[in-house]
Amino acid sequence: MDNMSTRGSMILHHSKGIKRKASPEKDSPRKIKRVAKACNNSVQNGILEREKCQIREDGETSFSVDTEKESSSNTSDVCSTWLSKTSTERKAAHDGAGSCRKKRRTSDLNETQRKTTEDTVEETTEDLTVNVNRFEDKYTEQNLLGEGGYGSVFAGYRKADHLPVAIKHIPKDDDLRTELDENGKELPVEVIIMLKLTGESVRAPVSLLDWYDLDQELILVLERPVPSEDLYSYLEVNGGSLEEEKVKVIMKQLVDAALDLHNMGIFHRDIKLENILIETGSDVPHVRLIDFGLSCFFEETSCFNDFFGTAAFVQPEYLSNFTYKAGPTTVWQLGLVMFEALHKNARFSTIGFLNRTLKISNELSNNCRNFLLRCLTIVPDQRATLEQLQHHPWLK
């Protein structure tokens, strides 16, 4: 599990990229969060027509629409603009919001209010100390596995039985997404989802073993299968690609896992080589899913306008309409994983696929090519569903 870091993230998450510790020199697509208004252009007529996209150096992206500026239909120009600009909008918005708040002076508090505040701080400090002590008493943290703008992940083990674990540190900041759980308690979305997956005993996702709420960060203690490596590293070890039959074994497990998540109303949003773990302890590769930091809950009618994911793999429908749905997005992401696994040293990008600089090999079997084409169909309504993929002849 030494190479459990990612091109744009790892077991770690969120809209900022995670650097591959083992290969820092690689050119890594960045994980992004974009916010945009939905437009009405069709996919066929509108792909890549919106230019005004800004990306900060930390990998986070905000996306806005300039309705007065003439749009460009040149894919390369749009891509160049999209991947070059630096955004300051989010920081400005954050700073502006803070300036609207009035500060209340301590001297305005009466003695009772002051005493209550002091008691609360004291109790909170005690709780935090207890949490830190509990974590340190139970786990040993070891070497760094991956790091990025949203924290870091370390290898470690549980002291009681030396069970290997991954220890994920997530800073508490403005980008930490929270929701109310079933009991009405506000929790990080990633924690809620991981607790739900662990409770349902779904096999593919790694399990959440423990989590700790500290003052400045969250600590998630996750299952760490040993021996294992992410699919990106697995391909590198195997010469850059895999034989079709081995890819079929992996894809069958991925489709089943994606369908399990879909049926539970969970949308991963960032399925890619680096977020797929391959257990290598047997002749047959076993697939595990990691990094649910960008995941969310959804309903069949849900339509998303805020983009979370990896820039290079953006769905075509988002480039045209700034909207996307869970099912078609997941199928698109399964397709890009399959493309990279089958084509030696291939680095998939949506722009390259739309420009036809990336092409599906003619050496693949007809059923394999058809399966891949069904995943990478440009128009989302014509893309295969997860159920259709599960029953596709290639997987039989």
Characterization of the model:
The chain is α+β, with helices and mostly antiparallel strands and 396 residues long. It contains 12 helices and 17 strands. It has a 6-stranded antiparallel sheet, sandwiched between helices. Mean pLDDT is 77; it is low at 1-124. This is non-specific serine/threonine protein kinase.
Q: Assign the structural class, choosing from mainly alpha, mainly beta, alpha/beta, alpha+beta, or little secondary structure.
A: alpha+beta
CATH T-level topology of the domain at 228-391: Transferase(Phosphotransferase), domain 1
Under CATH at level 1, the class of the domain at 228-391 stands as: Mainly Alpha
- How many beta-strand segments? 17
Largest sheet geometry: 6 strands, antiparallel
In DSSP terms (H or I, runs of 4 or more residues), the helix count works out at: 12
Query: What is the global morphology?
Result: globular
Annotated CATH homologous superfamily of the domain at 228-391: Transferase(Phosphotransferase) domain 1
By oligomeric state, this entry counts as single chain
The residue fraction in helices comes out at 25-40%
- The chain-level mean pLDDT equals 77
Instruction: Tell me the strand percentage band.
Output: 15-25%
Unreliable sequence segments: 1-124
N→C terminal distance: 31 Å
Second-tier CATH architecture of the domain at 228-391: Orthogonal Bundle
Order of helices and strands: EEHEEHHHEEEEEHEEEHHEEEEEHHHHH
- As a whole number of angstroms, the C-alpha radius of gyration is 22 Å
